[in-house]
Structure formats: C-alpha cells, structure tokens
Amino acid sequence: TYVNIWRRFILYIDKLCEDTAITSCDQCIRKHPQCAWCSRTSDNSNIKRCRSYTKTLQASACATADITMPRSDVIFQKNLPFSSRDDINVVQLRPQNININLRKGDTVKFNVTFRKVKDYPVDLYYVMDLSNSMKDDLAELQKLGARLAEEIRQNVTSDINMGFGTFVDKVMMPFTSTVPDQLKNPCVKADEFCSAPFGFRHQQPISGDLTAFKESVQNTNISGNIDSPEGGFDALMQIAVCGNKIGWRESASHLVVFTTDASFHTALDGKLAAILDANDMQCHLTKVNSSVDSNVYVYDKSKELDYPSIGQLRAAFVANKIQPIFAVTKEVRSLYDGLKSLIPNSFVDELANDSNNIISIIKTAYNKLKEKLQMSLDDDNKPTGVGISYRTLCPTAGGWAENSLSCDQIKIGSEVTYEFTISASSCPATLPSQPMTFTSSSLQEFVKFNFNFLCDCNCSSMAEVDSPSCSTNGSLVCGACLCNDGHEGSRCQCTQSTIGLSLNAQCKRSDTADICERNGRCVCGVCDCDENYHGKYCQCTNTGCPVTDGNVCGKLCGCVGGKCENCYNQPKCNCTSKNGIPYTLDNVGSCTCHESECIDQRSNNTMVCSGNGNCSCSSCICDPKYDGIYCQHCNSPSCKTITAECSSHEACAICVNAAVQNRENANDLCQVQCKDVTFQTVKAIPDCSVCTANSGVTCPSDCADVDPSVLTPTPCSQAQSTGQCKVSYNIVWKKSLRNYLVLIKEFDQAIDCPKPINPLVIVLPIVAGIVILGLIALVAWKVYQTWRDKREWKVFENEMKKSKWTKGQNPIFEEASTRFENPTFHGT
C-alpha cells in the first residue's frame, strides 16, 4: 500500500542520514535533501546530529533554532509585468531574472511565461543582388520607393524602421572580370552603363526616415559580375555582426529581406581566387570617403577573407537575433528552401521576375515568423551535475508538449507557458562565469538562470578554535568537534598514544569494514551505540521490547544498558518484536531474538534463513553462495539449471547477433533462446577477468557489475547457422542479477567473417597453367618439327649422294636457225 511504501521511504532516508561516516554539517546536507544537522552543543556524545528532518524536530536534544537544513527554492529576482500596447519598453517574457538555489539530490520547478505584445517594433533591412540579371527588380523597387515602406507600415506593423544595402561579388577572378574596362563598366559588352562591381555596400542605416530610404534606392545603379553564384553571404554576415553601423534597435525584431535570382557562394569558394583565410565573423565596414556617399559603408575585407559558411551565418543570426527572409526566383527556390532547416526562424518565398510581389512576401513572412516562437537554452553555461527538463503549453495545443520549446500560431495577446524541472546530482567545484539564458533568436529579451548550490552550512565558517567543548584539542564547528591531529573522540578527549592502536580499528569486527556496524560511534576505541543497539560492536538490537508506555521495556520491566530487566520480581518480562513476533527473555535479562524473525513471512519457504544460513540477532548470516535478508538468493552458477558452457548459450548468442545484424529487436526476437539468461551487446569483448579487488587494473565499463570470483569469464566463438561468419561472446556472472550475463559482440563483417576468396587467386593460376601448358606444347611441337625436318633433310642428302647422272642429247631437240636475205642482192 501507499502507507507502507511511504514508511519504507522514511526508513531509507533515516538510514542515509544517520550514516556514522557523516561527521560534519557539510557532509550531512550533501547526503540527501531530507537530512538535517543539529548544531546544539551537548555533553551527550551519543547525540545523533545528522538525521532526517522529521526525526531532528522530534529529538528533544535539538531545538528548532539549532537545526541546519537549507531548502532548495526559486526566487524571481526580477519579474516586471508584461508591457501594454503603449509602453515604450516592451516586456514579453517574465520573470526576467531567476535565482535557483539547489541542494544536491533535490529538484525545483518553476514556470516562465511569454505573452505576445501587440504592434511589436520591427527593424527591416532590405539587401538586394545588383547583378545585371536583377535590372528589372531594381527598377520595380525604385518605382515602389517610399510606397514600399508605407505599405509595409500599413499592412505589417506601424512601428517599423528600414535600411538598405546591395551586393554583387568579390572583385576578383573568377568571380568578377578584372579587365580594366569591365572594372569600370561591367556591362560594356552589352553597350550599357553599369556601376563598378563591389562586394557589399551598406547604403542606408536602419531608421524611420522613409524619404532617406527612397533616395538611397533611387541612387542605386545596377552592376555585374561573371559567374552565376553571388556574394550574398558576405553581405549577410556584415549585416548580422555590424549592429551599430547597420542601426539595429535592441527592442525590435530584426528582419533581413534578401532578394536574388542566383545561387550563393559559401565557405571554401574563395580558394578559387587564392583567398585562404576563413571568414572571421567580425565587422569590416568602412565608410566611403565621398561627400555624396557620406552614409555609405563598404565591406573592406572582401578580397582578404573567404565567404562565410552556412554554420557561421546561423551562429551570427542566432547571436544577433536576426530572422532572414529569402525572396528568390523560381529557378533557385529549391536551393534556398534547404536553408530553412539549417537557419532557425528563416523564411523562403518565390520572388516574381520583376519583384512586384515583394510587399506580399514581406507581409506573409512577417505574419508567419511572428506567430512562431522557438526558444532555446544556453547549455554552454549549465553548471556540472545539473539536469534540466522542460515542457511547453502552447495556446492552441490541447496539453503539454514534453521536451519541446516550440510553438506555432501565437496570436496577439496569447500566452505560452514553459515549465522547467531542475535538479542537482552533485556539488560542482566551480560555477560558470555567466548565468544560463533562456531566449529566442526572434526576441531581444531573455531570462537569466542564476545557480547557487547549497552545499555548505553557514555555521561551517564560524568555527570556535580550541574550544573547551572539544577539550581544547580541536575546533567546535556546527556543534561538533573537529579534532586536531593526534586527537580523536566526540570531544577530542583521547589521543592515539594512550591506546597504541588505531582507535577505529578497535571498533570493527575483523570480517567487516564498518565501524560499530554503522549503529554507533567509535569513542576512544569503544563503540558508543545508538539507541536500541548494544553489544561490543553495536551488533545487537533490543527493539523487540514493547513500547507500551513510551519506554523501551514495558510497564513491569526496566531498561538498563539496552537490556530488559524484571523490576518488580515478576516471573518474566514480556518481550515482543516490532513485527509482533515474541522474543525470549534470557537469564541475564536480555531479549534474545526469535528465529521467526529470520523467516520470510511473505514466502512459502518456512525454513529459518531459507535453509541457507543461521539466525543471529534477528538477522540471517548466510552460507557461502547465498545472500539476501533471508538468504533467499543464490549467487552461484551451481544453482542454475544451465551451465556456463559455451554450448548452453550458443543459441542465444547466434539469435541476438543475427537480430542486431538485421536491425531487429533482439529482446522480442530471442525470447525463447535467451529465456534463462541476460544478454548485452558490446562493440568488443572486454576482459572482465581483471575486475577483482586486488588486481589494480581499471575494470572495463561493460564489466562494472561482473564478479569474476564467482565465475571465470568464459570466451566463446561459434559459427552462424548460415554462412561462415562467427559469433563471439563471453559468459560472465552479473552480481546484481545473480545470473549469467552473455556479452555478445556486435557483428563486424571485417572481423567476424572470413575474407572472400579473390577470384583472381583462382583464375590467374588456371590461366597461367593453360598458358604455360600451351607454351610447353608449342615448344615440344617446335622441337619435334625441327627434329623431323632435320631427319628428312639427311635422308634427302643421302639420296642425292647415291644418284648418278649421265650427259646426253635430247633426241627431239633441234637447234634454232635464222635466215637473212639481202634485198639488194640479185644473185646469179
């Protein structure tokens, strides 16, 4: 029941606060938020100074004025009311400054409220791309002129100031042509006149002078460059960090309208022009030396510093609470849409080709941005050991949103409530130099969280040196004696030399490190027991005696030295335990414990100490391998139905390994295989064998609760059911669970699986063998052919030598004859 749970909690607190290791007020209030210290000076050395607050109040030895118990609280140091419409100073967040006083282990809760104020001031800076492709957009803006500001004032907010600036790109190759003629007029090839190229030009500071804004726009001429991306990020960085020169008001929302039809250059693009220095996120605006342009500033580090990165822009916008509105053409809309998720409180909309919808874009963006609120906490200044959780109640939500600081659809006059729960798990050695801040990039206001830790008692700084209450051998601090070296005791009344041995060592049993069993204090080598405890080491309790009349013993009995005595010669003194189980009064007048105290009444086991130990002073002394109040728990593998052999846990390890490998829930998938054990996946199998008290080696974090003295860690390795990959696991004994813990290595293909056979290892030898066999065959064939030809040649030569030839005339041969006749000859 709830009452029993509460009683157990109170007993738990009492045990914590009354720890005999606590000897000072500072230690007491750091132990638990419910611990209180009694600073009363008393001759009674047995007084318990650190107790739960309830017990301290009940203790007659301590008055309320002597109790030290600092309480955690929250103080609203500054809590100005919300401003109204006509107030000059706008207040939308309250409280504004909070002091948080925390005790270790304690928790506080408080709320911060935001109320949307009507007609909140707005500073709007209009920065425009002046590359030649924006010619018609500039013409439209010049046509609008002052009407732009008037329409924004009428349709958006009446309290608006405006500024104007322009940008092109870095005047360096390959971004801008450096041909002398084109440096003077980048539009010379198109037979048009343009202004000389530049990086960023701040032409009109933010102000309520609409005429100056109109003139600044009218005096602007188009320019040009070479590549498509523009240097707009340089302009945005200077607009963000040059607050004084730009003219941002501290009490207004900061909006930047960024218009372009091209993509942007970002960090590292400057390397194309041999610019190696990263953007330093500092202001580098220099006034132009011209009487005409007396209010015009230019970015003088354009050729020296790289473009800023998106991350740098984000940081600058958040730090200076700037909300950008990217009004871009359809061709580059998708590119700028990606910036919305990277830059908080940003807005992207599509700009018409001639910018005729710019007023509509600004109105839509302002309405959406003003209805959205994204708050944030400065975690960099959070003290060590502090935990912070929060939730938000938005005006249109049906309930609290846990771990969220965002709200949408915030209308004028509506409120947002933020609930913070802050706790301290430790006392930090040092505090951050600055308080934590709770704010938004869309607000100029913020809430300060100032932390103060209640870890030291005020009386600790008021020590009485060489106090008579401390036998002049120590200082009286918060009612307790802090002894000088060589002196001990509750009143520093004994010295080390009078005993010859360590005083504390005489108050401990040989088998424990606890002084007086944590039931008393060691006074000059003798245990001074707490109430209801007795024995040399305060190891016995006599709380079994009835408390019918407020005394330890009943009406017919007296209590002397923790023993119930028969005061009126009665045959016996009835002693009952606090649980109603009768005790027995022995022949020396002590209430001896009944064995029923050592039987778990909630269990079916009726054996004393569950049959696994002996009953002594109402407590069980367990046999080896057993622990628990009634020795009901076995802390040994011998009590388990399965052994520590690898084969007993093989199925579980393979199942978990496969589940993790397939990104499935191993707890659900492997219930059957792992029903008798607990498993844990690890990156690498740790060496838990070093986790012994005397090893002197730091125990791996995965082995923090492992006891190698109960079970020597068993390393195992098993092939998976499919494939040749192996599963590595280690079987250890987990102390808190009193059961096996299987540490299963997460699947790593590079380590757990054999490397696949390189096909070249197979193919190349086969091909090489074929080639070599072919070469051998060719060589053999060539040798054979050569031998065969040589043999036939010898046969031919022999035949030639044997042949005999004779000379003769061909019988049918006739020699050729030719006859010539002389035509002039006339023979006779």
Automatic annotation (TrEMBL):
Residues 24-457 form the Integrin beta subunit VWA domain. InterPro entries: EGF_integrin_1, Integrin_bsu, Integrin_bsu_cyt_dom, Integrin_bsu_VWA, Integrin_dom_sf, Integrin_I-EGF_CS, vWFA_dom_sf. It comes from the Eukaryota. It is found in: Cell membrane. The keyword Glycoprotein applies. The chain crosses the membrane at residues 760-784. Keywords: Cell adhesion, Cell membrane, Disulfide bond, EGF-like domain, Glycoprotein, Integrin, Membrane, Repeat, Signal, Transmembrane, Transmembrane helix. Its main location: membrane. GO terms for cellular component: cell surface; focal adhesion; integrin complex. Disulfide bonds join C25-C35, C28-C62, C38-C50, C187-C194, C242-C283, C394-C407, C455-C459, C478-C516, C483-C492, C522-C527, C524-C553, C529-C538, C540-C545, C559-C609, C564-C573, C615-C620, C617-C670, C622-C631, C646-C655, C652-C753, C674-C725. This is Integrin beta. It comes from Ciona intestinalis. The gene is LOC100180214.
